[in-house]
């Protein structure tokens, strides 16, 4: 009888160890699959697309609040000859009209000029080189968990990470009292990124008497072009308050891929 009990206990111990190991491997595999996919999806495939940028911002509150809206469309092409941004004649005409109007009245609304600030090389690179951009974010984040989920009604794996306060410069970090950063990435069975969501919130005090707080959210949807990962939609939202002022903004960039 004693031998049977020992045998059963040993069997249970082996089963428990196996289950724990399987659980650990499942979590490790998701992250490994993501990293492998990000390395694979940095190929040289050419990208042609129409990029639309929509912006909205609000500064202040009540009757004194100032709102601005903007929208602009450009054609982009990236390949062996590098990145090219094509401005249509219609867009150039709008820019000319708004610049002339602004010279006469500095307070006049200039929606095209406002949106065009979001269309430059530094803003475009994360969209057309999405794998590299996401890979750097993952390397700086701390892996937290993996679970079965869905994206657009299809099976997916959700990988969750914690972001470090190290993202904030050392100079500004001394004013921060509280920081929270999270990154969620939905991946397909082979680790290919489908979408991501990043959230950051910061609060603190500067110069003893000035309290501040801010939040930033960044949602992205990805697509594969050949062996390249691109962002087809990116929505960035931010809000903040401090020194008696309050502001918020929202920017949506969509990439309509062309054959």
How would you characterize this protein structure?
The chain is of the alpha+beta class and 259 residues long. The protein has one domain (35-257). Helices cover 32% and strands 47% of the residues. It has helices spanning 2-40, 89-104, 111-116, 121-128, 130-140, 170-173, and strands spanning 47-59, 66-79, 82-86, 142-151, 154-162, 176-187, 193-206, 210-225, 228-242, 245-257. A ten-stranded antiparallel beta sheet has the order 3-2-1-10-9-8-7-6-5-4. Helix 1 packs across helix 5 (130-140) and helix 4 (121-128) crosses helix 5. The chain is flat and about 60 Å long. The termini are far apart.
What does the secondary structure layout of this molecule look like, with pairings?
Elements: H1 2-40, E1 47-59, E2 66-79, E3 82-86, H2 89-104, H3 111-116, H4 121-128, H5 130-140, E4 142-151, E5 154-162, H6 170-173, E6 176-187, E7 193-206, E8 210-225, E9 228-242, E10 245-257
Antiparallel strand pairs: 1-2, 1-10, 2-3, 4-5, 5-6, 6-7, 7-8, 8-9, 9-10
Helix pairs in contact: 1-5, 4-5
Series of secondary-structure elements, N-terminal to C-terminal: HEEEHHHHEEHEEEEE
Largest sheet properties = 10 strands, antiparallel
Structural class: alpha+beta
Query: What is the helix fraction of residues, given as a range?
Result: 25-40%
Task: Extract low-pLDDT stretches.
Answer: 1-10, 12-28
Q: Which strand order spans the largest sheet, edge to edge or round the barrel?
A: 3-2-1-10-9-8-7-6-5-4
- Mean of residue pLDDT? 87
From the N-terminal CA to the C-terminal CA, the straight-line distance is: 74 Å
Percent of residues in beta strands: over 45%
Number of H/I helices: 6
Taken together, the total number of domains comes to 1
Radius of gyration: 24 Å
- Total beta strand runs: 10
The global form is: flat
